[in-house]
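Entry for the shared binder. Reason: the reviewer on the internal report wants the predicted structure included alongside the sequence.
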Amino acid sequence: MCDIIVIGGGAAGMTAAITAARLGKSVLLIERNERLGRKLAITGKGRCNVTNNCSVEEALANVPRNAKFLYGAFAKFPPSETMAFFEELGVPLKTERGKRVFPVSDKAGDVVAALERELRRLDVKIAREKALSLIIDENVCRGVKTSAGEHFARSVIVAAGGKSYPKTGSDGS
């Protein structure tokens, strides 16, 4: 049994796993695809627009609907901290037109590689399995049933992605 299971090896899942491991937690990351960050690797036409170099208020002003929903996340991890996070991982950044922030290399793969390096450095375990269902006992999530068996943890984070680009393996399930 580990402290935390993270379901999903995209940007959110890898970042959650890194954050938990940096806090001293043992982490298992479950990803059904062979590669982590498949959708991340093609974002921004392969360049990866990691954030916008602006205030939380300015970022939310550009959200077309339901910006209040995102306020809590942006307040805890504002664009400035997102930039610092990636630079700390060894990804130098640049700000372009429209305050869009990209890796200096213009390669989304560099962002994915930096996240993978940090996962390895922090000894995050990775299971290449499909999460099938949560294991619930007495209204508490105790683990995850996968295509290869069951994994148990004190906490489970679901970061399984959305349906925005199913060809990458991200279909929201």
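Summary line for the report: The CA atoms of residues 92 and 105 lie 8 Å apart.
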